[in-house]
Amino acid sequence: MGLQETPSGERVHIAFFGRRNAGKSSLVNAVTGQALSVVSDIKGTTTDPVYKAMELLPLGPVVIIDTPGFDDEGELGALRVQKAKEALSRTDCAVLVIDAKEGKTAADEALLALFQERGIPYLVAYNKSDLVSKESCGENEIAVSALRGDHIFELKERIARLTGEKENPRRLLGDLLSPGDTVVLVTPIDSAAPKGRLILPQQQAIRDILDSDCAAFVTKENGLKETLSKLSSPPRMVVTDSQAFAKVNADTPKEIPLTSFSILMARYKGFLEEAVKGAAALNTLSDGDRVLIAEGCTHHRQCGDIGTVKLPKWLSEYTGKALSLTHVSGREFPEDLSPYRLVIHCGGCMLTEQEMKFRESCAKRADIPFTNYGVAIAQMKGILKRSLSLFPKLAGMLP
Question: Are residues 206 and 281 in the same domain?
Fold first, then answer.
């Protein structure tokens, strides 16, 4: 990732859905001003969702998604339709592309029902308006022509309004600070860390601290004691990578609030309260119970990997049970979580808020506890209440 590149999880995801040959790919190319998708008169040209990170005025950094036709047929077509459905989980704004000559069909109505069921803001774009006139459009409808470029600018403007800035933008930790505060960030550098870079939550924390007119002190876990001793006054908080929780807890005076990047990320993505509730399931697991360990990013697994090595070890030590563990990463995530007794998710820094909410909702529908790395590790290390001291309401939920 380039130094100035906005991470995928922080970009607005705009997805184009519709039937085969409705002109989705042509409209995507017209909106982006690029030959992003292959265009053909042959039905089913788009066989897998196409993802493209780009800058799109007036929206800024976005991810454009071109999906397969929702009316595809046959065994292979069913798989393509499933891929289109999966794209919904990461969609912040949907554009339903309808062939103006054909009008709305049952497949289009099914898509609209999915948008509404999942609470996804959407627009209906009647494409090929150069071939037939659309007499009137509803409030969330627009007639466009990808071929002639008619009303493409207006379409982008309306998408921008649907995905506009929230009244209270999310903060990773800046809302917990006052100007002039200091924060100590503990960032272990292990074999799985990206060479020459900090991981994304650490980068985001530093930026948020600076944006709050505060100072960030960054140290490794073996330098924490010395760093604290050199400060003229105690820091507002210490934030650590979760895998160093035990040592950092021992080296941080009790009067200094302590939390982790993963816990802050759970709050940032909107599921910290559920993660705290879900951690209680760690005390109820039995031999043979299935636990899903999910990561939002994909990376080369190495010796000491937190998801596949450290978490399983800590789970075994804490529960004393022989658990059945399943690992998934990236866009791979089962909608049906009923076979599992617990889901432990990473912080989700590479996933959008929409996708994290979708994954959490899958667990809620199946009545399966859902927690994340930082909360689970704090629970297993016996310091969950302390790690939530910055959030008294959540800390008060614990015995």
Answer: no
Question: b vs e for 74-92, b when ≥16 Cβ sit within 10 Å of the residue's Cβ?
Answer: eeebeebbebbebbbbbbb
Q: Residues 99-126: pLDDT tens digits?
A: 999 999 999 999 999 999 989 999 999 9
Nearest partner of 260 among 372, 393, 399, 174, judged by Cα = 372
Please give the full DSSP string across 128-166, using - where no structure is assigned: -TTTS------TTEEE-BTTTTBTHHHHHHHHHHHTPPP
Q: In 10-71, which ranges are E strands?
A: 12-18, 50-56, 60-66
CA–CA separation, 355 and 88 (whole Å): 9
d(CA 67, CA 62): 16
| DSSP class per residue in 370-391 | EEEHHHHHHHHTT-HHHHTTT-
DSSP classification of residue 307 = I
Q: Is residue 68 part of a domain?
A: yes
Which structural domain, as residue segments, surrounds residue 97? 8-162
Same domain, 260 and 275: no
Q: For the segment 239-277, what is each residue's pLDDT rounded down to a tens digit?
A: 999 999 999 999 999 999 999 999 999 999 999 999 999
How many other CB atoms are found less than 10 A from the CB of residue 1? 12
Which CA distances in Å does 197 have to 2, 50, 202, 209, 268?
A: 11, 28, 10, 18, 22
Pair 267, 173: CB distance under 8 Å: no
Give the domain-ending residue among 208, 241, 264: 264
Would residue 388 count as lying in a domain? Answer: no
**Same-domain pairing of 193 and 238:** yes
Judgement on whether residues 251 and 281 belong to the same structural domain of the protein = no
Q: Does 19 lie in the same domain as 135?
A: yes
Question: pLDDT (tens digit, 9 = 90+) per residue, 290-347?
Answer: 999 999 886 545 445 888 899 999 999 999 999 999 999 988 899 899 999 999 999 8
